[in-house]
Predict the 3D structure of the following.
Amino acid sequence: MTDKDFDLTRRAFLDHVLIATAGAGMSAAAPWAASAAAAEPLQRDRVRLGVIGTGDRGRTLIRNILKTRNCAVAAVCDTFEPHLAKGRALVAAGTPAFADHRAMLDAGGLDAVVIATPLDSHAPLALDAFGAGLHVWCEKAMARTIADCSAMVKQSQDSRKVLQIGHQRMFHPTYLAALKRVKAGEIGPVTQIRASWHRNTSWRRPIPPGSTDRKINWRLYRDASAGLMTELATHQLQIGSWFLDAAPTRVIGSGSICFWKDGREVYDHVALVYEYSDGRKFVYTSLLNNARYGCEEQIQGSKGTIEPELGRIYPEVPPKVLALQRMQEDVKRGHKRTIPIGGATWFPELPVTTPGELLGWGEYDETMLQFEGFGEAVRSGKPLPGMLAQAYQASVASLLGEQAMDRGEAMTWPGDLVRV
Amino acid sequence: MYVERFAAMGTRFELHLFGNADPAVARAARRAIERADDALTIHRPSPVTALNDCLLAGRPCQVDDPLLLDALVEIEAAQGLALGLFDPAADVARPGAGWGAVVFDRQAARVAASLPLAFDFGGFGKGFALDRAGDVLRDAGVASAFLCAGESSIAVIGAHPLGGGWPITIPHPLDPERTLVEFELRDEALSISSTVGAGTDAPERSPMLRPSDGSQVTAARTTVAIDRSGARGEVMSTALLVATDAQAECLLDPAQGRRFRFNFSPEPVMPAHAYEVVLQ
């Protein structure tokens, strides 16, 4: 792709975001996306980012940062040398590389850090960065405990530094288009969201020489991760609260190590119900031994359903009445026959198999846009509006769900969260 | 030819427009039905639920919604015609509740009740909505249309697209190979009520109650009412279903041939009347 091609693609993408965020209710529902897309980032004076964690995810982030118009990777850091070498290979020659984040912070020359490390290290790394006077971009989920999530939010407020969490769906034109159609009342009031992330994989990675199972497969161990809840569900919990326009009030759930009995400590099967005001529900399942239903959020209202991952909207159109279909055919061929009336009026209660309608905008590059938005936030010292509140809520919801499953009892939404 | 198909009022609607059908006109008719649904539903907050909240709390209520007001006017007008056998306020859980306890001041758009009660317009809403949709289509110049709300409430506009009336047949509810009755409709609505046949055993279906004592109609019956007004057709098919034999005699009106009651119970206490047929 040439620079010109990229400029056109980028412009088209930003236009899609701006179109999707224009209209009644959208400025309040997705202010972060509108402000990120509306900004015109400068190519000079790029925001200098130090990327901590250059594993698979960290390197994906680096590739996206390199596409932005206002951010540069000014340093990379990883405790595992093979990962650091791969990260270094992506950035300009001479970019400083560190095995220790403290050394990177002490070296200076940064405006912000990007954290893409195991979950339990997010909070200490973020707090160190704030302490060094830097802004922070951190992968979701925020932290291993609700207390640490709150500490990150509090520290960003006290230090007046931007804290942005990586929830790229918040910049996704298809999700924004879906929200716009919900706000327009196209599917009626949303009373339930069914979401799932189903995979058929052990989620266990091979251990390279020089590392350990705990370091590479940290997602499978409780000291570092809440497993499916913090690594996958948190994305969808954010979508749930975003589309239901509220935080949950309560969660019940059941989790188990049901299939992969390989010494892991986190559940490979989770099923939860998050309750919202007015009886609304977010019903969630995630498992690791069946991929049939994959990853999806089914946003359900009385007039229709939206499935953003598929990018489709399904109106609640009932099946045709066969007798009336026959009447149509009769009229077309000039044949007048009696019309039978008085059969069953009940809907066949089978899944709808109609193809639905495309929400549009299948191509996207939302990870790039969230970094451009972060760059502008760092430059202005003002966080993208509304974003941190969404992320904080999603992380708390994922960890509260873990508690509900561990304790086998309903957990109410905490009343002592930091006000964002 | 154009078909608008959608879900509303807990059932499926189809609006078939013939001739130079304008989709925008069909959509306007659909919106009329959806507005009637919004006004009369008790399954989500609506003008009816607001009214019910007042009446259950023992307070009078001002009716601001014009559609709800129209519905109350039609129900009041139908009371005499239906011998009080259609009662949207009757409730087995509230003895004494019913239209007789309602004080409806049409001019002041005010409703009060002498004891706590709530309205559930049920199938009446379908006929009422079809009437509103029919008005929209006629005003737009539609000359031939077939409107269906579920498969128990229909309305036709003008002549069949191939000329003449709309030929309708009602299948036997217990034997679809047999015909119960056939007739032609022109600018009329039709309502079918039944205690037998597909769907009548569905757990979500409310039982058919007699307003007089709240008892459930257990006799195996199907009734049909044809009327210029869809709302009135719904009232009459319901009234026929719950009527005693003597009441049914008054309601059937054999001279018009637009109301039918079919008994499927073999008991000798269910004799056939004019336009009332015993089928086993």
Remarks:
- The interface with chain B takes residues 189, 302-303, 315-321, 323-324, 327-328, 331-332, 334-347 of chain A (CB under 8 Å).
- The CA atoms of residues 62 and 297 of chain A lie 28 Å apart.
- The longest strand of chain A covers residues 190-198.
